[in-house]
Amino acid sequence: MSSNAPLETTRSQDRSAGSPVIVDAKPAKPVQRTWAQVMERKSSVPEGVWLRCDTCKTMVYRGNLEANLHVCPDCGHHNRISAQQRIAQLADAGSFVEMFGNLAPADPLKFKDLKSYPDRLLAEQVRTGNKDAVKAGTMFIKGRQAMVVCLDLTFMMGSMGSVVGETITRAIELATKDELPLIIISCSGGARMQESGLSLMQMAKTSAALARFDDAGGLFISVLTDPTTGGVTASFAMLGHVILAEPNALIGFAGPRVIQQTIRQELPEGFQRSEFLRKAGMVDRVVPRSQLRTELARLIDFAGR
Questions:
Q1: Architecture in CATH of 80-302
Q2: How many CA atoms lie within 13 A of 65 on its CB side?
Q3: Is 122 helix (H, G, I), strand (E, B) or coil?
């Protein structure tokens, strides 16, 4: 080795060519990426393509989740869905005819907390594209016609205000008149506090309409999903001739934490969940989402509707 050679290189003699070859003695340094390059690589994958299951924490491809009716293919967790998605899952293609969509909420109490009630309503209407937390209309389920009402959890947590109560009541009265089976799919946080006593009045109004529907010999199938709580549970949701529930749905009046703090006792495992209520006799059947269409059609046939 020549004494004048640089420290980072060595010279070796190529015997075949007779010329010196320079060989690096140090490994090349890795190329440093800038933050802009990192963000550019991240942005190449669109947001929301992969979702993490709330229960098993598994990453699920959105396309597979939607194909599986928004149920986790690994653990069977039933994700919450909107009223529009629910209707699309249940109705025969193109058979849903929406009704009472012209009803819109008002603010007779001039309610205001951090924001005024009209401002909250406007923000929800812009975000969801719906006037309130309910969709109703007639549809065919495997060829069986029915009146279907579906609460929408994406609009103010599916809370029951005057529009929700009026829509449900009109749907019940039309089902009574046309002798159609009635299906109400509940998913709600309860009565809407911004409407105070007016919201609570919907409990009595819907229950009275269901009593007249029962006197006329109608069939009412109540479907409980996660969550079904508050004034919805205390009124029409638990008045079905047949009560179905999705797996592991939270069903009750007050939440389990409130109850535990009130009675100061440990609650049983699975308290206020579908399976617990089925064993207690409050729910007739726990039906996975993939079987709900078939079960509803079977019940309509069984009742001769």
A1: Alpha-Beta Complex (3.90)
A2: 21
A3: helix
Q: What is the pLDDT of residues 124-139, one digit of tens each?
A: 999 999 999 999 999 9
Summary count for the chain: helices (H), strands (E): 10, 11
Q: Which helix (H) or strand (E) holds 11?
A: strand 9-13
Yes or no: say if 251 and 271 are a contact pair by the CB < 8 Å rule: no
Give the tokens for residue 72: 């986790």
> In this predicted model, what pLDDT tens digit does every residue of 211-260 receive, in sequence order?
999 999 999 999 999 999 999 999 999 999 999 999 999 999 988 888 98
Cis previous bond, 288, omega within 30: no
Report how far apart, in Å, the C-alpha atoms of 56 and of each of 60, 74, 287, 290 are. Answer: 10, 8, 21, 20
Please state, in angstroms and rounded to a whole number, the distance separating the CA atoms of residues 266 and 132: 38
Phi, psi of 128 (to 5 degrees): -100, -25
Strand, helix or coil for residue 184: strand
| Residue percentage of the chain with pLDDT more than 70 | 87
Is the model's pLDDT at 36 over the cut of 50? yes
The pLDDT score that the predictor gives to residue 153 is: 95
Query: For the chain, which residues make up each domain, given as ranges?
Result: 27-79, 80-302
Q: Take residue 121 and report the two structure tokens written for it.
A: 């309503």
pTM (two decimals):
0.84
Examine the pLDDT at 92 and tell me if it is beyond 60. Answer: yes
- CA atoms of 213 and 291, how far apart (whole Å): 27
